[in-house]
Amino acid sequence: MLEIFQYPFMQKALVAAVLISVACGVVGSYVVIKRIVSLSGAISHAAFGGVGMGYFLGVNPVLAAIPFSIVSAMAIGGVRQVAKISEDTAIGILWSVGMAIGVIFINLTPGYAPDLFSYLFGSILTVSNSDLLIMLVLDVIIVVVVYIFRREFLAVSFDEEFSSVTGVHALAIYLLLLALVALSVVVLIKAVGVILLIALFTIPAAIAKQYSYNIRNLMILATMLGIILTTTGLVLSYIFDLASGATIVMVLASAFAISYYLNG
Amino acid sequence: MSVKAVKIRNVDLKYDEQLVLDDICLDIDEKDFMAIIGPNGGGKSTLLKLILGILKPDSGDVKVFGRDPVKSRKLMGYLPQHINFDPDFPINVFDTVLTGRYHGLFKGYTDKDREAVLKVLDDMEIKDLKDRQISKLSGGQMQRVFIARAIVREPKILIMDEPMASIDPEMQSSFYNLMARLNKKMAIILVSHDVGAVSTNVDKIACLNRKLYYHGDVENSAHGLEEIYHCPIELISHGIPHRILKDH
Ligand SMILES: Nc1ncnc2c1ncn2[C@@H]1O[C@H](COP(=O)(O)OP(=O)(O)OP(=O)(O)O)[C@@H](O)[C@H]1O
Ligand SMILES: [Mg+2]
């Protein structure tokens, strides 16, 4: 069975699985404990606007997704401060507007958008070397930022009001956290697609949370689980010739169900 | 003369259009031990949040040690009335209390911080729970953790919103002993509904129900109590030791 990893595309997919698992394990842990799952869903869908713009401008859609996801993250996170619009409403608006922008850009782009489907539903088997490089750089940024601001992220996630009394700049830290979510979305976009990637943010961390009482262990365990489960999904999708993103999500969901049953 | 710990001048505060605090003036000295009492919805928590700089007054002025409350935050310890957190948040008791020692960006916690945490956990009699996940505590134990988190800072002003909620009588008396000890080094402001316990333990009382009806020494507070609770003083004084109602 292991011989399938002799193929270069499989090796790349394996590297991609590790890289996405790091982003999901680290940032996904905050997404789950801070309960910003739907907010993260909005950021991921909004990022599709960037993918469309990438096609239109002829740049790597993964790179073009970075400004889109960051701007939408800041918009959702900051909206309470500047306008009487609830975060929930902002999530609903950006979720679909980002997608709509993406679709319109693709309409405007002459010719056919070859691997559009992979940005929607993911295609871990077609990640390129440059995609991997982008993912690696973003992973490094994510891990370094989390390491530097780990005390603030923990304090703000646990009790925002108290943290601000102790001198944490809670809003700035919250926006920084959302920026990391946005970068993680970009890490995942090619491999799992904007529609499915939220499962990777939530499921490994949600499983790991049942077993660890400490955020560092939670991140490590979630990353490990992510690697094991995405690789399993990858292999299954290859064997049964199924869409990789969807197979990975189903493997994750099954693991969650089993773990919940065993713990319950 | 030294600067006041808290100086509140003619403060109004509205939520939407409802006036919740009406022309409040209040001074708190550096070594005061003050209880704020008053009915539900009287604005007690709101007043504390003004002092902490979490809320801003619509008019009037709040100063803490002569500065804007936000600038004086490092000097304040806070126990909120309610804490919204994920019930199975991955954090243990020790780390929760440690967040009370936060120093600022890029500054880690030191051994001194860890010692301070162990010390307050001991004071609150929850040292044996230090590795327990926060959700696996009883309501009273959890309250002790959050009291510990407020005092571990060694603040100049300790602000506590109903610290005795779900605390057993035994802890209650050791809590007031601890407060008396801490009061040598800091001003303490607490909200309580237990007029009896408060009147035997604190020096000053503020009676708040939208307006500040009384503030000053405990001895003279009976009139203020009557006015804000709108009920005969006999009811309120039931069970209150004589300190509050001195013979004339
Ligand atoms: N976030 C808010 N938005 C709107 N109104 C509020 C808000 N918080 C408090 N209020 C209102 O302000 C008033 C004062 O509330 P506050 O929480 O300060 O009362 P309290 O004296 O602490 O009461 P309790 O004893 O019940 O804790 C109440 O009438 C309450 O309904
Ligand atoms: Mg209150």
Explain how this protein is built.
The complex is a heterodimer of chains A (264) and B (248). Chain A is an all-alpha fold. Chain A has a single domain (9-262), classed as ABC transporter involved in vitamin B12 uptake, BtuC. Chain A has helices at 8-33, 37-57, 61-82, 87-108, 116-121, 129-148, 150-158, 160-165, 170-209, 215-240, 244-263. Chain A is globular, with a radius of gyration of 18 Å. Chain B has 248 residues and is α/β, with parallel strands linked by helices. Helix content of chain B is 30%, strand content 24%. Chain B has a domain at 6-88 and 163-229: P-loop containing nucleotide triphosphate hydrolases (Rossmann fold). In chain B, 42% of the residues are buried. In chain B, helix 3 crosses helix 4. The model of chain B is unreliable at 231-248 (pLDDT under 50). Adenosine-5'-triphosphate binds next to helix 1 of chain B.
CATH architecture of chain A: Orthogonal Bundle
User: Considering DSSP H and I runs of 4 or more, what fraction of the residues of chain A is helical?
Assistant: over 70%
CATH superfamily name of chain A? ABC transporter involved in vitamin B12 uptake, BtuC
In the CATH scheme, the class of the domain at 6-88 and 163-229 in chain B would be Alpha Beta
Briefly characterize the structure:
The complex is a heterodimer of chains A (264) and B (248). Chain A has 264 residues and is an all-alpha fold.
Helices, strands, pairings?
The complex is a heterodimer of chains A (about 260) and B (about 250).
Chain A: H1 8-33, H2 37-57, H3 61-82, H4 87-108, H5 116-121, H6 129-148, H7 150-158, H8 160-165, H9 170-209, H10 215-240, H11 244-263
Helix pairs in contact in A: 1-6, 1-9, 1-10, 2-3, 2-4, 2-9, 3-4, 3-9, 6-9, 7-9, 9-10, 9-11, 10-11
Chain B: E1 6-15, E2 18-28, E3 33-37, H1 44-52, E4 59-64, E5 76-79, H2 93-98, H3 111-123, H4 139-151, E6 157-161, H5 169-182, E7 187-191, H6 195-201, E8 204-209, E9 211-217, H7 222-229, H8 233-237
Parallel strand pairs in B: 3-7, 3-8, 5-6, 6-7
Antiparallel strand pairs in B: 1-2, 1-4, 8-9
Bound molecules: adenosine-5'-triphosphate (ATP) and magnesium ion.
